[in-house]
Amino acid sequence: MFQNELAWLRRQSVRGLLAQFLTVLTVLSTSLALYKGLSCVVDSESPVVVVLSGSMEPAFYRGDLLLLSMPSEKLKVGDIVVYNTVYGGTPIVHRILETHDDYEGNDQLILTKGDNNDSDDVVLYGGPSWLRRSQIVGKVQGYVPYVGYMTIVLNDYPKLKYALLGLIGVSVLFSGEDS
Amino acid sequence: MVLMNTLTSRLSAWSGLVLSVLLFLCSAVSFLTYPSPSTLKSLNPRANLTVTSVETILGRQRWSPNREEQEFVEVRFDLATDLTGGLAGQGGRALWTWNTKQVFLSLVASWDSVDPRARGKGGIRKNEAVLWDRIVQRREDARVLISQGNKYALREVGKRWAGIDSANFTLHWNVMPHVGMLAYGHEATTGAIPIPARARRVRQLPNGETVEEDEEVRRMPY
Fold first, then answer.
1. Where is it localised (chain A) (predicted)?
2. What parts of chain A have a pLDDT lower than 50?
3. d(Cα A23, Cα A31) in Å, to the nearest integer?
């Protein structure tokens, strides 16, 4: 069935394959550089996140894309922020309910709550009664609906992730063919 | 295989075009429907916010893992505002656009307290807490006329409100678009509202001395 393709593969030189590999590597590292560059500009280690839980409905649904930045001034009550819990796992996107600013320096004690939750997030902090500014990944500045749903599907069905990677690998391998 | 090649190249060209167009459209929409600087910075002259009562009590939270006894401030307020933008032509405000998904209103108390770590060096800590909020999803529902008390606990980091003279109350709004940048602003504010000290019961002993008694610790509804 794939006689032609297999014969062609055997005819390929090592140099040709390596050159193709290098092209792929260039594309990947350019994307990474752009992402990290954006990270630097907005001062947030994760400038683009996908909403993973329903705790901010009806504003944000699972699969929506959020654009983050870390403001240089103090975070305010009502800001929507993303933070990581001590339990690891998914980052949480919730709204700030209380802020208590340090009298000097930039640190703040922060209490958050999801719009769709009845109670605040104290149980998620793993002990302390407050979040600190240093635990906040960023403040939500912009929002695009539905775009991140692919991430959720890939996370929920990891076999799909491997299948997709395999497909990309195969297509890259055969992309240099002239026929 | 030739068909696959043309198919994949067509697909990649088409998806490249679609993505570029969508990106441009989203940016344009966000830019066009972002509230004007005057809306962002100004208060609504037609909004009315008054605090009708303030009381400091000793209580214990019912639904929080933090069950410590602490002082809570119970506030009752009246709020009347119209955010529908229907009066835009008459000096009202237009928060709603075709790109508005919902508006989030929150009533925020802000006060200054002394940071204990400042150790008498005059370190003032700024505090803000939400005591009430509402999600407004439809433009028609954006007329708010309420008179009620806190939805959330108003408590201090130091667990006591002694030494805190007053607090300001402000109504904040947050416009959340269907696509684009989130916008924040203020709607109305009160001046400094004094926070009373907790009422202590004073009992007179037979020998003439007075002793303060702690009232019972109230179980808070939040």
1. Endoplasmic reticulum membrane
2. 178-179
3. 13
